[in-house]
Design brief:
Blueprint (H helix, E strand, L loop, with lengths): L1 H31 E3 L8 H10 L3 E9 L8 E5 L5 E3 L3 E8 L3 E3 L8 H10 L3 E8 L9 E4 L6 E3 L3 E7 L4 E3 L8 H11 L2 E8 L9 E5 L5 E3 L3 E7 L2
Parallel strand pairs: 2-5, 7-10, 12-15
Antiparallel strand pairs: 1-4, 3-5, 6-9, 8-10, 11-14, 13-15
């Protein structure tokens, strides 16, 4: 019986010792585990200082273009924020680098769909699309682009386009009774040009004044179109 009691006591002592050792190991490991901080959006120098202050290693895994982040700022990290890791473990980060500049393609005169395709092929992005009247550019085609053809833009830059909705119409001003020079001035100021000019004699009116215009005053006509004039020659 005495031998059995001694053996049991020895086993119990061994179990207790093993448990104590395991508990101590867990305590030590717990003390060595640190929480990974978030460094997303920080400049590299600040991110390094924060990571190393936790007893971790700062490792730049890659540099990559990112149009939304300033060059040198952190755009990704591994392990993620809040992870618990052993002290001395590496935290890999990705650092933003300045986007490569690309040449702006020619878009004026192209249909909107074709212009969008060329923008995407140039690694740019379609920005705001607005419409405006144009007597020269076909409806649905590009009148102007926010970055001129041949200019440089960063990758992913948004390119704004103005697309034609046709000539549009505006009222023709009245130039009846004006001199030819004055009529030309008023028509051009309103957005028209002077078309054919012919003469007619009317003794009831002063020589050199406009007797008739086509289109008539206040009629709607495409902006930039011509207005024909009849001048009094007595």
């Amino acid at each position: 019986m005495a031998f059995r009691d001694v053996a049991v006591s020895a086993v119990v002592a061994a179990i207790v010792a093993a448990g104590t050792t395991f508990a101590l190991q867990r305590t030590v490991l717990s003390r060595d585990a640190v929480e990974v901080p978030s460094v997303l959006g920080l400049p590299s120098q600040s991110a390094r200082a924060l990571i190393e202050s936790r007893g971790l290693m700062f490792v730049v895994g890659e540099e990559r273009e990112d149009a939304k982040a300033p060059a040198g700022n952190i755009v990704a990290q591994r392990p993620m924020e809040g992870s618990r890791v052993e002290r001395g473990q590496a935290v890999d980060v990705s650092v933003a680098k300045a986007p490569t500049a690309v040449k702006m393609p020619a878009l004026v005169g192209l249909a909107l769909g074709e212009a969008k395709l060329r923008i995407e092929m140039a690694k740019l992005a379609l920005g705001k699309v607005t419409e405006d009247n144009s007597p020269e550019v076909k409806v649905g085609n590009v009148i102007s682009q926010s970055v001129a053809e041949g200019g440089e833009a960063k990758v992913a830059t948004a390119i704004d386009l103005v697309v034609s909705k046709g000539a549009g119409t505006i009222p023709v001003p009245s130039v009846i009774g004006r001199s030819l020079a004055k009529a030309k001035e008023e028509l051009q100021k309103a957005g028209f040009t002077v078309g054919n000019t012919r003469s007619r004699s009317d003794e009831d009116h002063t020589d050199g004044l406009i007797l008739e215009q086509i289109p008539a005053a206040n009629q709607q006509a495409p902006k930039g179109s011509a207005v024909d004039l009849v001048v009094n020659r007595t």
